[in-house]
Amino acid sequence: MGIVITNGKIVSSEGILEKDVRIVKEKIVEIGLNIAKDEDEIIDAKGYYIMPGAIDVHTHFDCEAGGIVADDFRTGTKAAIMGGTTTIIDFAEQIKGGTLRHALDTWNEKARNKTYTDYSYHMTISDWNDRTSQEMAEMVSEGITSFKMFFAYKDLQVDDGSIYLALKRAKELGVIIGFHCENGDLIERLREEAILEENIEPIYHMLTRPPSLEKEAVSRLITIAEIIDIPVYIVHLSSKEGYDEIKRGRDRGNKIIAETCTQYLLLNKDCYILKGRISLKEQNMYCLLLLEI
Question: Which domains does the chain have, with CATH numbers?
Answer without folding.
Answer: 3-50 (2.30.40.10), 55-289 (3.20.20.140)
